[in-house]
Design a protein that fits this description.
291 residues; alpha+beta; Immunoglobulin-like; eight-stranded antiparallel β-sheet; four-stranded antiparallel β-sheet; 38% strand
Amino acid sequence: MRNERRRQLVTILFFVVITLCLPFIAFAAEPAVHPQPEIVLSPSSPGPGDIMIVTVRGMNGPVEGTFNGRKIYFNPSQSSFRAVIGVDLFTEPGSYPLDISATGSTEHRTVVVQKKEYPAQHLTLPKGMVELSPENEARVERELKLTNSIWPNETGRVWDGGFMNPREGKIVTLFGVRRFMNKIPKNPHTGVDVEAEEGDPVHAPNNGVVTLVDDLYYSGNSVVLDHGQGIFTMFFHLSKVLVTPGQQVKKGDVIALVGSTGRSTGAHLHWGVRMQGARVDPQELVHLKLD
């Protein structure tokens, strides 16, 4: 009889303990729920030559990322992180991977690059400016290798806030224009041409370091500035260069004077932008509101 009561008490105690512990067991079994980060693309579907801003909220910094295999750079901005990404002018329409990572999490997105049409421009020039001699072809090839060696370099951020126009004036040739010279198709225009007079000052659009000063076949007297985080600006056909390689410049500094050197039919400023190697519209860079 006594053993029977003991077994009953043990059974009752067992069920009491199980009942009391069940909520804790269930709670422990439930996986921790982490809020999904917010990732905003602007524009959501860029075109070739566009600049896209990626804003990330809800991820613990530092935030890193890549777009189509190229490194991109996130900067803290109030309660978020932001990166500016260049979509190269020669990018084919389609879907491209965007990977974003931070402490303890990685997010994968797809960026849809849409088709974008650019106008055509037909020019008539002296034959010698369009059809190159073997010597000039070799020179152009050497200079192309020189300039292409600049873009992969990764340096820390030098730019501060928004970019300014290096030369105010009427845009006489837009970015992306498809050029036909003497009816021969040539590469699209990868910068903008600003109307100006010989000797007009050219200003640094942001803080930067002079990474190239040279006299090139197509672009004449040329200057390239490195603003850090893969952003470069370049200025062509200059009559006079006022900076030297390695020199640090501030936004607004006069770096050169407008001219008509290289393959040019008159005084103007050609300026362009590379962003993580991508050829993008300089006017978009100027219009961006950057911290």
